[in-house]
Design a protein that fits this description.
It contains twelve helices and 13 strands. The strands form four sheets. The chain has a five-stranded mixed beta sheet, with helices on both faces. Strands 8-13-12-11 form a four-stranded mixed beta sheet, sandwiched between helices. The chain has a two-stranded antiparallel sheet with strand order 2-3.
Length: 349
Amino acid sequence: MQRSKIAGIGYYVPKNVFTNSDMMKYMDTSDEWIQERTGIKERRFADRTGETTTTMGVEASKIAIERAGITPQDIDFIVFATLSPDYYFPGCGVLLQRAMNMKEIGALDVRNQCSGFVYALSVADQFIKTGMYKNILVVGAEKHSFGLDFSTRGRNISVIFGDGAGAVVLQPTDKEGQGILSTHLHSDGESAEILAMYNPGTHANHWVKDPVAKFDDAEMGAMFMSNAMVDEAQNFPNMDGPAVFKKAIVKMPEVVEEALAANNLTTADINMLIPHQANLRIAQFVQQKLQLKDEQVYNNIQKFGNTTAASVPIALCEAWEQGKIKEGDLVCLAAFGSGFTWAGALIRW
C-alpha cells in the first residue's frame, strides 16, 4: 500500500530571545520558579508588528520545500495548524498560499491547539494515501506573544509559551516499510473550559459556571468583546495547570502504546519519541511511564518554550538536523492539549 513520507522538513523561530530573567521585568516570578515548574529557561517572541503566524510559517515552509527538492508551485494542498491565526478569519492557510505565490490550491486550517500538527499530519496522510495529492505542505505555527497577559496575574500561563513555526512536505512513497505507519486521534470535551481562551467568542458567557464578570442577556448578546471582559482579563488564556498535567501524563503514553500496538511494535523499537513540548515535567513523566532511555526522547522546551502546534515539527526538525533521526529509524510523535485532544503518529523515517 502506498504510504506518505516526510520528504522535507524545516523550522523557524524569531530572533528575539526572552529569558526567564527578562520575564521578571513584567511579573513577580523567578528563573528558579519557572524552571522548577516547566523546565523552561528561555523562549522566542516574534517582532510585534514585523512577524505574524503566517510569515513564520512561510519561513519554515521555504526550508521544508527546498529540502524536498521541489518549488512552491509544486505544492498541491496546504494544511495549516494554529491557535493564533493572523485574523479571526480567514485562516492562515490561504495567507500562506498568497505569500508564497502558489497555485490556486486547497488550503485547510486545523484548530486543534497543541495536538494540531499531528492532526494536520494525519489529514494530509489520508489525502496522500488516496492519491488525491502528491505534495502536501503541513505547517504548525504560533504567535502566542501578542495575546498573553504579561503581568503577575497571568504569569502561570505567560511564562510557558513561545513563538515559532515548523513545516513538512508530505509525498507518496512505495518504499517498503517507509513513511507514516499509522496515526491515532482522540478527543474528550468534558473539561474543555479548563484550558481555553474564552473571548472573543460567540458563547456570551452562558456556559461559564462562575463568571468573573456578570452581564445581562441583552448586553452579552450584543457583545463580541466588551470593556468588562478586558477589565476582568477574560480575553486571555485560561488554564488549570494541575488538571491538564494529570490528564496529559495518562493520555500521551496511552496514544504511544496504541500506535505501537497497531503496528506490532514495542517501546524498545522506538528510536526517537518527539513529545509535544508542553512542559518538561510532562515529557519526563511520559518517558518514565514508557521506560524510554534519554537518547530515545527529544526535548527542546528549555530554549523555545511551548510553541503549541509548532512544537512537534520544530523538535522533529531539530532532532533530524542533529543526526538523532536517520533513515530507517522508528519515530513516534505524541501530543496532548486543549479540547482535550490528543494524538499520536508512528513514522518509519
